[in-house]
Amino acid sequence: xxxxxxxxxxxxxxxxxxxxxxxxxxxxxxxxxxxxxxxxxxxxxxxxxxxxxxxxxxxxxxxxxxxxxxxxxxxxxxxxxxxxxxxxxxxxxxxxxxxxxxxxxxxxxxxxxxxxxxxxxxxxxxxxxxxxxxxxxxx
Length: 139
Description:
- The structure is a single chain.
- With about 140 residues, this protein is α/β, with parallel strands linked by helices.
- The protein has a single domain, classed as 5'-nuclease (Rossmann fold), CATH 3.40.50.
- It contains seven helices and six strands; from the N terminus they run βααβααβαβαββα.
- It has a six-stranded mixed sheet, sandwiched between helices.
- The two termini are about 20 Å apart.
């Protein structure tokens, strides 16, 4: 399963854990494939540095771990779907380019879409709950 995490979910995973952290742990355990892009990584680095005072070393380690847990794609198209927050379009570009199975976001602009080009958009809590439910059904 290919999963694109919005930057806010990546930040929450790194700083706070919870459902976002569980999703990154699943990626690290190769139970799903995390899909990233250079713009998403750059935004993550900026937020962790500016809002959480991460050192260069901590940023490097965080980025290295995420790159090992996933794959980095460079989308070939530019979208302008979310006009209220154009940076949200970078997430959709990655999802479309990578043929993602799901986008996980805490962003209200993306969550309001519910899906984009057939790709569901879920909150971290929804994603973890849905995954747990599916795993129990398959037992």
